[in-house]
């Protein structure tokens, strides 16, 4: 159900805001392969490296992030949520991928990046591939 | 097999480089829900809007993009590929989600954004959530 996926997505942001390492660990998949792209960074692959990155960020103080307008795209036992992240006056866009594992939805991938412009239209998409 | 997923991922970049609208249309899923986050933009949801965005970009000239270091994360009938995109001297990181639909791997989501820094380490993750 989408409500369970949305709850898992919100639990991720809640754990981050509370800087709760145990809750963050619970959120990520145990068996499925895990990855993460923090805003502007190269990708991290593997549960150990991904969890270490969250611990490092949270130990140094998580910003007051809010998840806005989450939308679920369901693909059977996998789902991804697209949402905005509002933090420190800025807007980011995130893709959060979840897998149904051991009876609950667990995160396997988080990819977030800054939004520089609003929704593209035909005119503004002309030329460069994005806002480079 | 991962090789089939990697081939689908490369076919996406190939269609884009060749500005081949028919090939790009073939690449995206027909039945599964489709979404796309172009670099720096808000998300687009729905096949119609996503395809319109690719047509608009390709009609105005696609940049000579290269997919580098693709890595497959398999989740049963769903898989996502994380890869770098090298274009015009810049580096982007992309998450491409595929679903096995009608006997072939089809794209359901593309999320790309610029890389501003190298791989994070504990020191550089301190403080802000990313490179804001």
Summarize the structure.
Two copies of one chain form a homodimer. Chain A has helices spanning 2-18, 21-27, 47-59; strands at 35-37, 44-45, 66-75, 78-87, 90-101, 104-114.
List the helices and strands and how they pair.
The structure is a homodimer of 132-residue chains.
Chain A (H helix, E strand, L loop, with lengths): L1 H17 L2 H7 L7 E3 L6 E2 L1 H13 L6 E10 L2 E10 L2 E12 L2 E11 L18
Parallel strand pairs in A: 1-6
Antiparallel strand pairs in A: 1-2, 3-4, 4-5, 5-6
Helix pairs in contact in A: 1-2
Would you write up a description of this structure?
- The structure is a homodimer of 132-residue chains.
- Chain A is built from 3 helices and 6 strands.
- With 132 residues, chain A is of the alpha+beta class.
- Residues 120-132 of chain A have low confidence and may be disordered.
- The interface between A and B is large, with 61 and 61 residues.
Give the key terms.
homodimer, alpha+beta, 6-stranded mixed β-sheet, 3 helices, 6 strands, disordered C terminus
Number of strands of chain A: 6
User: Taking Cα atoms only, what radius of gyration of chain A do you get, to the nearest Å?
Assistant: 15 Å
Question: Pairing-aware structural class of the strands and helices of chain A?
Answer: alpha+beta
Which chain pair has the greatest contact? A-B, 61 and 61 residues
Number of helices of chain A: 3
- What global shape of chain A is seen? globular
Distance N terminus to C terminus of chain A? 38 Å
Strand count, sense and barrel status of the largest sheet of chain A are: 6 strands, mixed
Low-confidence stretches of chain A: 120-132
> What is the ordering of alpha helices and beta strands of chain A?
HHEEHEEEE
How would you write the strand order of the largest sheet of chain A?
2-1-6-5-4-3
Q: What is the strand content of chain A?
A: 35-45%
Mean pLDDT of chain A: 90
Helix content percent band of chain A: 25-40%
Oligomer: homodimer
């Amino acid at each position: 159900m989408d409500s369970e996926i949305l709850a898992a997505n919100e639990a991720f942001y809640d754990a981050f805001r509370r800087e709760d390492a145990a809750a963050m660990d619970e959120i990520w998949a145990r068996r499925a392969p895990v990855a993460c792209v923090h805003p502007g960074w190269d990708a991290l692959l593997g549960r150990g490296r991904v969890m270490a990155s969250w611990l490092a960020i949270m130990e140094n103080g998580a910003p007051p992030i809010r998840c806005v307008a989450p939308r679920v795209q369901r693909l059977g036992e996998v789902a991804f949520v697209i949402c905005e992240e509002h933090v420190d006056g800025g807007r980011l866009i995130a893709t959060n991928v979840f897998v149904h594992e051991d009876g609950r939805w667990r995160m396997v991938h988080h990819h977030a990046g800054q939004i520089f412009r609003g929704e593209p239209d035909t005119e503004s998409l002309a030329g460069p591939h994005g806002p480079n």
